[in-house]
Structures are given as C-alpha cells and as structure tokens.
Amino acid sequence: MTPFKLYILGCGSALPTPRHYASSQIVELRGKQFMVDCGEGTQIQLRRSRIGFNKIRAVFISHLHGDHCFGLIGMISTFGLQGRTAPLHVYSPKELEEMLMSQLKFFCTHLSFDVVFHAVDTSGQSVVYEDNSLTVETIPLEHRVPCCGYLFREKPTLPHIRRDMIDYLGIPVSQINNIKLGADWVCEDGTVVSNSRLVSPPDSVRSYAYCSDTRYMPTLYERLKNVDLLYHESTYGDDNMQMAETYYHSTARQAACVARDAGVKRLLLGHYSSRYDNEEVLLKQAQEVFPDTYLANEKMVIEV
Question: Which domain holds residue 173?
C-alpha cells in the first residue's frame, strides 16, 4: 500500500502560544505533497519536519483569517530564493486573490515560478483538484467569514497480480497490465483462466477530511460519511460553549458528535484555544462520545 500521510505543522488557534503554531498541515499521497492552510511559522515547521519545500504542489486555504494564511507570502518568497521552477497552485476563497497578487508584485518581483490562483466556492461541495492519484473536494463550513474544509480522497488502484499464478502459467510480462485491467488468460490448449484467479483485490480507497474553522453543524456528517481520518476543530471545551457559539467555533464534544454520526474511523482534534494549558480535558470530553479520538500536535505524522 502506497503511503498516505498527514503531517501536523501547526494546530493552535489565532493567539500564538509557546506550545502551538498556527494552522498548517501537509497531506502526502503517492509521493505528492499538498499543504492545507499556511499560518505564521509554517516555514519553520517545514524545516523541523524535514519536508522538502519544492515537493509541495498546491496550497489549500480554508478561509481568510490570519492564523490560516499569514504564512503564505513568506513561504512563496522562500520558494523563490530556493530557485523553485514548478508552478505553485493556490486554492482559496476568491477574496485572497487581489491581496496575494499585490503582495507578489511588491515582495516577489523576480520569482522563477508561477503562482496560479484558483478561487473556490465555499458554499458548495465540489471537486477543485484532481490528478491520477486523488481528488480534493471542498466541504462547506459555517464561520464568521466564507470558509470551507477539504476532503482528500484517493482514487481506486488496480488489483494486485498473483505472482504465483503468473509464474505457474508462464504469462509474459507484456500481459501483466492487461490482466490488471480485467483480462482473462487463454492457455495454449484453449483453457481460459478467469481474471479472478490471476489477481487479488486492490488496496482499499482511503480518505482524509479537514474541517477548520466552523461552528457545530448537525448535518455536516452527511458530507463526511466513512472517512478514514477526520481533523475537526475543537477550539473549546464544554466550559466555553457560549464562546463557541459567539465566535462560530466548535467544542471537542461537538467535533466528536460529527465523527460519530459520520461513521469515520478516527478523529483528530485541533485548533485549540490558547486558554487551555493542557488539551487532555478536550480529549476526555470528545472520547466520551467517540472513543477513537486523538489530539493533534506539532511534528505528528499520521498514516491515513
């Protein structure tokens, strides 16, 4: 099974603390890397995580609050200093485009690569990126500004060849791909060996959903059915329910309700308020609803 990994670069909220950086993650699938949000300090965390800057193909910005995008222009500038030549694609609510292009003209006048902006519609769920490995869909969220999450969904792979059968039947290498695509094999005496005897099932398709920032949405689970790994903001605990409602954030317990109702395999909490010196209280409240819950932390690497 090819690697599908999540790197946590930052999982704090708006107010900086010595313990947590602002929101940023790397999603890696089949050797390709994608960034989700780019808060202040992202470059430092990339260095600490030993992630190569030039491997990042695209950046997906959830919304235009500083703790999710203040690091973008600095990172782009550094890419230029490193001599990057591959285009960098930026997916974001449309309001970022004018600001980003102004910053590029002022701070990054001699970039050796193109920055390609893609406006995303935060009000609906749609595929905004696709290649031969995966699709990325927007997930509409409810926050104080236009905001969306992102769903990374692996594309199905071909079945695995049964090497024992290939060797036994003397099937030439030139026919391997045809068999992976569903072909039977006809022996010299005319005997037909069905494809099901020549292959084993493909790897299961995996998926990862990123939901930050949002107030509790009772119907959000419908868009996240059976996701393997869900990252959902858990800014507050039960003690600050009113704060969550006022500022359109979620509690850890509410995040767990979404995970439970969606039938996801694992829940990862993040976007912690700076008022919590220890997030174990958030973890405990979430696990009362959804036991397979974990705390995100910087430099954490999770296999999806």
Answer: 160-200
